[in-house]
From TrEMBL:
Protein name according to UniProt: Uncharacterized protein
Gene Ontology MF annotations: ribonuclease T2 activity; RNA binding
Family assignment from sequence similarity: Belongs to the RNase T2 family.
CDD domains attached to this UniProt entry: RNase_T2_prok
Chain intervals for the UniProt region annotation (Disordered): 23-66
Gene Ontology biological process terms in this record: RNA catabolic process
Length: 259
């Protein structure tokens, strides 16, 4: 995916799904190497003041026509990670909220500004590097419950969108809501696609306007890691040749079941 090799994706997934936090500078801090551990409550609720569990606030999504249009790039890539694959390797004991028994399937890895060739990253922005906790927690229903990942996504990708933090994350949510996941890709599915082509076809059938040339399936050998979907700045589906060329070429695909 245009300079986003699987190893980088795995590292970012590890950052996200470990449940990490940031210090005042916006840098990730903690005790697992450079990746911290800050567990969200096992029931998926956000921790309130004093560590008490409380519901995660949910941001209201603006109508697509009212979303501000980003600038400085050509289109977006919405990256949806398959949580069970990461949990299988990194948290088999289900100690983190990401890998508990709540049965998470696809979660948003990020919304990435992209160019026809290459992509911008870590851009100068008038916005702070740190994402406020109150804003970050509004995303816990669609992203891994990890403020460190959310902050990293803003600094690396959101800062290149031409949007402020609030508008960028509203656009990220709207992009996720733009994609309909069919039952065969849901966490409760009893029968799942057995190849990258079958997964793409399931998405295309469920999302009018989506094409095979606008999707890239990322796999580790034959195991699904992530699906990347290309969108215009106003979140219409579009083709993206360079992204599509980096897709999974394994003849078969496995999708570990959620807990």
């Amino acid at each position: 995916m245009m300079g986003r090799p699987s190893l980088v994706g795995a590292c970012l997934a590890a950052l996200a799904l470990s449940g990490c936090s940031e210090d005042a500078s916006g840098e990730v801090q903690g005790s697992r190497g450079n990746t911290p551990i800050l567990q969200a409550p096992a029931n998926g609720a956000a921790a309130g003041p004093g560590g008490k569990a409380g519901p995660s606030p949910r941001a209201e999504t603006m109508p697509r026509g009212d979303l501000p249009e980003g600038e400085g790039f050509d289109f977006y890539v919405l990256a949806l990670s398959w949580s069970p694959s990461w949990c299988q390797d990194n948290d088999p004991q289900a100690r983190t909220a990401q890998c508990d028994s709540s049965g998470r399937g696809f979660v948003v890895h990020g919304l990435w500004p992209q160019n026809e060739r290459g992509y911008p990253q870590f851009c100068d922005s008038a916005e702070p590097k740190r994402v406020p906790e109150a804003l970050g927690r509004t995303l816990f229903d669609i992203m891994p419950p990890a403020l460190g990942l959310i902050g990293h996504q803003w600094r690396k990708h959101g800062s290149c969108s031409g949007l402020d933090q609030k508008a960028y994350f509203e656009t990220l949510r709207a992009a996720r809501e733009r994609v309909h996941l069919p039952d065969s890709l849901g966490p409760q599915a009893t029968s799942r696609p057995s190849s990258a082509a079958a997964l793409e076809e399931a998405l295309i059938r469920a999302n009018p306007g989506m094409t095979q040339a606008g999707i890239a399936v990322d796999c580790d050998k034959s195991r699904l890691e992530e699906v990347r979907i290309c969108m215009t700045k106003d979140l219409a589906f579009r083709d993206c040749a360079e992204v599509d060329r980096k897709g999974c070429r394994a003849p078969a695909l496995t999708m570990p079941a959620p807990r």
